[in-house]
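Study this fold:
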Amino acid sequence: MKTLVRSVLTLSISSALALTTAQAATYKIIDKGAADKFKFTYSQQENNVGQMAISATDAYNFPVQFQYFDENDYDNIVLSAERSHELVSGINDIEDETALRNGNPTANDLFWAIYYLKDTQKSSLFYQKYGDIVAMTNSGQESTEFTVFDVNFDGTDTLTRSTVDYINGITDQGWVYGNGSAPFLPVDFTDSNDNEVTLWLSEFTTRGFLSTDGGNSIIPILPPETTYGGESAVLDISNNGIAVGYASTSIVEEVLEVIEDESGGCRDPEVLDDLPFEACVQLRANGMYNNEAFKWYVDESGEISKETLGFLVTPHPDDPRQHVSIAQAVNSSGVAVGYATGWQDETEMNPSELEPTSLYAVVFKDGVVKDFTEDHTEYFDSRAYDINDAGIAVGHATTLSNGSYRKKFYYVDTNQESPQMVLPQDFFTGSSSSARAINEHGIVVGQGEVETHNDSSSNPRRTHGFMYDINTDTFTNLNELLSCDSPYTIIEVRDINENNEISGSAVIKVERRDAKGNIMYDEDGDALTEDVVRAIKMQPIAGEVEDCAKVVEDVERKGASTGIISLMLLSLLGFARRFTKK
């Protein structure tokens, strides 16, 4: 293994000290993520002809429906701002309470209304939903949003922004695909005390889609089990029209029992007096379905046929729990990889009703689902994210490293009778890393942790994108392939095409914008700045190694600003798409 001198980053809010070492100007950044309606953009995939799939979030001018707030809601918004405004730089206490209560807030007060919605909507059916993840395509410098399943509010031309729309990729033919949720729409209801309330309900949690015209028209991919909406997703499509993903094939027995229970469940007349049946079901939507890996065949006209790929294990007939198999990528030969529910004891042949389980990376090939996590006591909770036409798959597996459980990236040859994962050295022994894609040249890309502190949910480690060459056993921090003066820090990588062009997301400092999208200024009239995440393309260029070895003490660049709050939250979100690949 070639030894690399790598960056060691240490961050504090008061100061940021970083040691950067040799970097190579062999790639340049093309910013694909500038979007005037959204704060953050994330690259998903660029095909071989320059078209990119992009996700965006944090819309400016989010359409808060103030008419559904009551006086208690406004009181709580005002109280929240009073208690918390000093914790957020550049955000003030409520500026114009009268205008806020009239539904015409200042940008500052709109921030607090959105903050309130984000907090209350997590578990309540009684508030407008904040979904706000949208799908975009980019064929040059400008990114264009397209609508999947969202709709306008009645009588308006304003989208609800309540959906979560994941664009998972784009083929060389320009077909885009992914999965999205149904919009949450207001439904009036009168409870047992004759109180008139408004509930926010949706028809399904997530559904796969395909568009053969760049998003102008949407083809929904319906699952076999559509009771209460069902679930599906298209996670990858090869350039010869083979699609893979997952779809619901049955409802989890223990969830169904609660829904159909007439004594305390959703069929209970007393429950129905205070909650519509659809609302009761919606509260139990998470983990409702047994999702099975699927393969779809798409012809040139967009006609679709389907094939189930099966599960890794067969549970006990009385096992009431959720079991899944998910196909996340497919090559041109139709060999797919993903992950599935498996037994913690890989030798178990007669499982009990509650046999201990985990999720394991698998290959779907020749009608068989094969687990290649060889030792379940050493490696578990593994994933396979991509496979090339040579049959080399990549992903990550969880293992004990330096006394803590960490994800470690791997590659594996699925052509072998008994595939064995190879785990190369990444940034350092205790770093978590994940490989997200591999091209036909044997170049693997992904991201891994570069900080060494004891991390937690409130203090995660920062990540950098990496490249690993299977042919030369060389691991490289992608930030070391940029020029020394690059303003970008690559934190995540999702794909690499056959031109060795890399799709990723990077942090860059920009002028700060308020909740309405206007530039914010300090007392001296100077524009405030913040760190945002942008979708980027890394394009190879002719260049040589530049020696950038230096110590940089720079609070501004290393994110000691309010932007770090958003970045930490986003790192927890990680655009972790439940079962999605990209």
DSSP finds seven helices and 34 strands in the chain. Residues 71-84 form the longest helix (14 residues). Helices lie at 71-84, 97-101, 107-120, 253-260, 269-274, 277-282, 563-573. The first strand starts at residue 8 and ends at 11.
